[in-house]
Amino acid sequence: MADITDPLASFTLHEVPPPDQHNVRKSKGYRGKTVLVTLFVSVIFVMFVALIYDTSSNSVIRDFRPPVIIQRQHSHDLKKTTVRLEGLNSPFIHSGQPDSDSWLPSFNYYKHLNGIYTLSSNPWTHSDDPGSMGTTSAETSYYKLLNPTDIKVGDIIHFAVIVQDANKRKRVGGGDFWLATLSSDKNPNASTAGKIVDYDNGTYSVYFVAAWNGSAKVQISLVHNSDATCFLDSLWNTQRILWTASYNIGNKKTDTSCFLITSGISTWNNMCEYPNPKALGKTGFMCEKRNGFPCSSLNHGSPSTNQKKHMIDEIKGLVKGHEKLFGISNGAWKVNQRLGSGPKQIEIKGHGYLVPPIDLPYCGPNLEIPISDGFWHDGIWTSFKCKKRSLDVQYVGECFRNKEIYLLGDSTLRQWGKVLASLMSGHGIADEFVKHYVKAYNSTLTFHFHQVRVGKVYSYDLNEYEVDVLDSLRNPECNYVIVFDASFHYVQWSREAYKDRLLHLRAASMELLARCPDVPIVFKGPHPRDHPYDVYINLSVSDYIIHEMLQLARYIFNQPGVQIYLLETWDLALSYPSPNKVHMPYHTEKEEEVAMFLSYACQMKETK
Fold this sequence. Notes:
Blueprint (H helix, E strand, L loop, with lengths): L27 H26 L28 E4 L7 E2 L18 E4 L25 E4 L5 E2 L3 E7 L14 E9 L3 E5 L1 E4 L4 E7 L2 E13 L1 H11 L6 E7 L2 E10 L9 E4 L2 H4 L3 E5 L9 E6 L3 H13 L17 E2 L6 E11 L18 E4 L2 E4 L9 H7 L4 E6 L1 H15 L9 E4 L4 E7 L16 H7 L7 E5 L10 H21 L5 E4 L10 H6 L2 H15 L7 E3 L2 H5 L11 H21 L2
């Protein structure tokens, strides 16, 4: 879910509706005075509305100003909190023909506004009769459009989601996990993802940008209810992975079992220990010792042949008594349930589609999270977050001339390598490439797969974690480009073990940047995926946990002074006009990810 600076979100908010987006004055001075007068009048109006509705017995849904989407805040002060609302500072530029001089929509209506929210009426009502509250039901929950029906290209579309249990009783808390998309499959073929705001009172906001004209289908889906997400939080804190490995001495071989030991486990016996504090922190990789084989003879591993059964049995035991949270029945589960009531389609008036503002920043570290990351239009991703680079063959080749490009991660990064190699050399490369040299530009692409990952491990080289690769880069010319990820192969690691991985990746990256300040370093974030497995394994790799991994990556990499670009792909993949998979389409979705990567990597070279 998106995060906002709103610690009072569990109470009804009475806010100022945004001014009209289409009648924007051209004179900055006149507009500034108008905004001040409007703001003053609006504040008085808000105070009046608050007095009227604070005595009501039920929460009142009102059309209110969209909050800014920013990093997670950990404030719980409900007494007196200043709430900052900001917006996108640059207007979008319409690519179609304007109807009149007033066509230019402005996103400046958020501007800086400081105010103190007051508590609204209590959602509870006194009764002598016993009450009950069930989990969120997709069948009885509904959503409604808060915009005027006349929606035009460039508008922000705002839906309110009201959640109820199966008995149609309104829920009074938040924590449900949602996915939302807006799409049209012809004239044009376009789609975008919605930003979702949780007010922790049984209501949510879903925001889209009306980026193209025509009919658009609305899909707001409940992935997991709040009780299910609480369970998944607990599940994430457990280790759910087991490997089978082998010790080899000459012709002698024996199998063993390997697993991770986290900082919460303080005792063990007769284990071969393979620590790497620079890569894993307090997490240890261990294997059961076998008589006659030294620990150093470990050389091969794969997921245990019993791993699937082990995982299913373990998760079944944890889920026992809680199956209803996930709608588990006959080997299936209820997930991504579309809400039962709400407008399924809207009409967007106007011409053409939006293009980014000319002053959009280049992609890079610590980007703000806008109300929309962007949209797909006829197979092309338009980013509202940062300026992409075109996939021009000569430009890409010159950008990486005499460079060593390291892709440290999983097969989704190997897809990047194939895109880059094709651009620089003009032809494809093997799917399982490890190193590729482009003679025309004296450039090298090197791919390192994760060590100790979930998935088949062909051999263990426990001195070749990403941090070890970064530490080995000592060329004084600092001609490196670094990309890494850590997502799909780590969903079954515990939260603490995964956090250790990311913190030590950041530390190793900062050490490299201390030696080579101009080296671009990128961490590719995760995206929603398919779930083709047994229902209990699907639970273990839930999109909710993957999204929480993204939130953790934001917390670790989006910090002042951390020059690591967290390239987020969540909305880009979620809104792509085909089902989400681990390996998204190579010639479209992956190329758009690479275009954002080039924006950062090549812009750094130009500014040196």
